[in-house]
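To whoever is on call:

I kicked off a structure prediction for a single chain this morning and the downstream step that reads the tokens threw a length-mismatch warning. I double-checked the sequence; it's 662 residues and nothing unusual in it as far as I can see. Pasting both halves so you can look.
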Amino acid sequence: MIYCYSADFPIVSYDSFWHLKTGQDFLSAGKPLFYDHYSFTYPGTHISGSPYIFQLIFALVSFIVGDEYCHYVMRIFAYACLLVSYLFFHRMIHAGSSILLVSLPLIILFLQMRSLVRPELFDYCFVVTALILYIRGADSSSTKYYMAVVFFMLIWANYHAAIVGYIIFFGFYLDRGIGLLRLKAGWSLYLAWFFSGILLLGVGFINPSFEHALSILLQNSGLWVTNINEYAPLHKTDSFIKFVPLWLLSFFTSCYLWMRGKYGLGIVNIAFSVIAWLVMGFVTVFGVFLACMVAYSLTLFATSSEAVKIGLRVLLGLYTLVIGYLLVINMNYKSQQAISLPEGIVQYLNSKPEGGNIFNDYKVGGYLAYSLGPAYNIYIDGRSNILYPKLFVEEYFGLINQANHPKLEALINRYDVQYLVFPYTKKMLWLTLNVDSYGVEYIDRDFVLLSKKEANLSVAAFLYHFPMCWDSGLFPQLKSEAETGLRRLGSESALRPMLGDVAQLTKLDVGSLRHLLEAEKVKNWSSERRRFWAFVAFDLELYGDAINLFNSLLNKMEYLDYFMLIYSLMEAGKLKEAEYLLNQSDSSWPKLIGKNPTMNEKYILYSLYGHLEAVHGLSETSSTHIAALAKELSPSFHGTLRYKKNPIPKFYCDALIPIIGN
């Protein structure tokens, strides 16, 4: 029951979709597993190291239970395999039931940390099976144990992440070598040990790509560490602190294994700890191995004196409390781990039979390939380390991270791209809307679709994220876009509520806007919707409404909102309140917003002090603040620091020019 609950996760990996699609296309249409069928950048190119066994299992499960339930059933199946293998391991080491109650929660904890329907799901079972072979053969000189290890690694080399098995069996061969030295064994045993080790390395090449796991490891690039989350160092993530007790547990477990002469196991345990420290995606493999080592160490320890056993029970009680606490915390994160998918965009594109090339966000490429018809082709997906070469991926991430408009435009023209699909964020909107002749065609909850064909939602899409660019002259175009958007956009669209507001206004005047901004309506609005109408209210000199709207953003405030709240207070004649908020800028604001202001934001703050000084004068505290700001800003302005005439920040408003031109 606990394992079934652990498997009941939302979809948390984009990669599962292209794995599923590859397997389904092979079983239903006979498309080769080792060649690309989905991208317009590398069509027909060989895929090296494709986890074809996992893809076929995944596709078979989907045909049996349907796509809706296949992710859940895959977790249940993989967890059942892991549980069975662990129970065999538990029985083999003669561990007691109390040890089972300790080790299983640890395994469940790590499974929940990366409950991804990806090939690694079955790697956990491989890890435990490898340990069964390791411990059973540790004290035997029989050739059959060597051959069992070689055969097992042949299977693993054709599955996924065989490097994990090679690390484990490095410890096995180390312990066997030490054992042979202690026994003063004959040459025949040394030769069996040596040549079986060579054979073990050799079978790593027996896979469809003829590539060895060790060579793939050596080819790993810092590019993946920088741009792909699973390769990022775990110690740099927010969740690092909860792993500290587990690393301490790993260290003490290794020390005890060394004390008992299990040198190989201790070294492998430390190696996995270090890898998990450096690579976040390795954490569950480390956790499953650690749980087995804890169980094995406790079993060895249980042969000690009665006094030691009493101390062990106390430690186990404390350990169980810690693991239970971590388990409960992690279960609370289940709903937060769900990924966002461009489902609305997919449904919309599938209603357009003509298809086309899609320049897409890296993460959702696999989902687009899985969900869209064969007339659509993507630019990139998660096969970055098995299909797309390093330089290609570097170019992609470079132009995205650096917001390189010319390179993006050249790339789109080179491949005759019809559509762009990216997260609906400020950064990506600013980047993509500056591409000549492209505009917004569709927006769902979290993603935006741009095209050349029906690009007539661009002003609304831009103002949603950049409301500081509002100008009353945009209302006629916004009104036209509202009519189009309400016909086209689904109910999930982030933009639809704002367009619905615009559609209610027959004209933009004080009376109409006040009716729209009734308190009962506004309290359920999103922060973006409130922010936009706050700027419109300010433009119509409805300063009281603007103040209320900016104030209502308290839990999601940005520096922009503080600036506009202060400016609205000034325009409404509430100068003391405005001055009080200005003087909180260096203390309260960074804590509320979570970051310090940029130089541009400090310049706006300086200008707001200037406006206040012109109409009211400044207190001693305010004078001190503005003097400190002037001293900090002067080097950037080369001694020509002046107040901004209009303190409303207009950082990206020049991007509206090409949008309106469309």
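Update from on-call: the warning came from a stale cache, not from the record. Cleared it. Sanity check on the structure: The longest helix spans residues 306-332.
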